[in-house]
Amino acid sequence: MSMLLSLPPGDYLRPGSYCVPPISPYLHDVATDVASWRRQLIWRVGMKRSIAVLGTGRMGSALARALLASDHRMTVWNRTKDKAEPLALLGATVASSALEAVTSAEVIIVNVSDYKATAGILRDDAVASAVRGKLIVDLTSGTPQGARDAAEWCGRHGAGYLDGAIMATPDFIGTDAGTILVSGQGQAFRDNEAVFRALGGNVQHVGQDPGRANALDSALLALMWGALFGALNAIAVSQAEDIDLGELSRQWTATAPVVEGLVTDLIKRTDAGRFASDEETLSSISIHHSAFQHLLELMDARGIDRAVVDGYGFFFQRAIAAGQLHGDFAALSQFMGKAA
Ligand code: NAP
């Protein structure tokens, strides 16, 4: 009880506060009751959170527009103020400083180029004091460790923290197909469902570890770049062989479901550790390796750069040297998890 009396008044009861350190079980219960009472109140009177968006570049502006469309009270701030001005026409208040924006809102959404820029904004002394009791949602792209460090910094400054990875271009924000992965404090995510719903139809909480969203982001980007660099190779081969790119595009559309099936199968088999060929194997390393030789021969004949595909060759060789030539293609995953 004496601990309760020594707390700064209102620190845990302030609307929008997600800072509930484990000081005493009693205090935790009080904070939980107040949070639950507040959730019911929001539901009954339809109150919406006041939100600040820091950073109104291409993505930040799309986020702000989606929130304005869902009637949230919005303040926006951008280092270059001109870029935030168009949002005033849609009903946003344009703040003159990050401090003014942070002070005005319960939920602070950050979307700038990288975490270094986020830190430059939030770690200013006055802003760092103003974040106490608020929820920071950083939707800036970054690394898992960067998100964990930011969560730790917010915890030390009395703020809640969620980290998000936006898996969409700005035109998808606010639409049913808008996907954002969010990780960190699950309760804070649930308490702000209306905010996240406004940003897209597929905004998911993917775990308590604040680094999880960025880790998934990097994994999915690795997959995407595999496909995009593969497409660049396909374009080079097509051009060298005088194949019309419209024809390439049509044949890719027809082949894409096969590739999607192979990727899903590869992930499933790796998860189950089923690396030896069996009756369900779709294709062995040996079959892929032999077709791969045709690609290399063609590329050499046409003088096409092999830098990307030589990387594939390296992993084929490692697997073959380890006696896995006749294994399922998924067996290659054993050679990529650790640098040689
Ligand atoms: P952008 O249009 O280039 O905007 C960058 C924003 O960051 C601007 O508001 C810029 O302010 C601000 N900024 C940069 N350095 C800053 C600093 N040191 N201090 C304060 N503000 C700073 O980029 P974007 O496309 O909106 O991307 C923003 C974030 O969203 C990135 O992390 C990106 O990876 C992520 N994202 C983007 C997409 C996409 O399709 N665009 C998709 C997924 C994720 P100024 O206007 O003053 O320069």
TrEMBL record:
Keywords for this entry?
Oxidoreductase
An example Pfam family from this entry, by short name, is NAD_binding_2
Which branch of life, at top level? Bacteria
NADPH-dependent reductive aminase-like C-terminal domain ranges (all copies): 209-336
Which SUPFAM superfamilies does this entry report, sorted A to Z? NAD(P)-binding Rossmann-fold domains
- All copies of the 6-phosphogluconate dehydrogenase NADP-binding domain together span 50-207
Name the PANTHER family for this protein: CYTOKINE-LIKE NUCLEAR FACTOR N-PAC, OXIDOREDUCTASE GLYR1-RELATED
Q: What name has this protein been given in UniProt? A: 3-hydroxyisobutyrate dehydrogenase-like beta-hydroxyacid dehydrogenase
- Species of provenance: Aminobacter ciceronei
Q: What is the lineage of its organism?
A: Bacteria, Pseudomonadati, Pseudomonadota, Alphaproteobacteria, Hyphomicrobiales
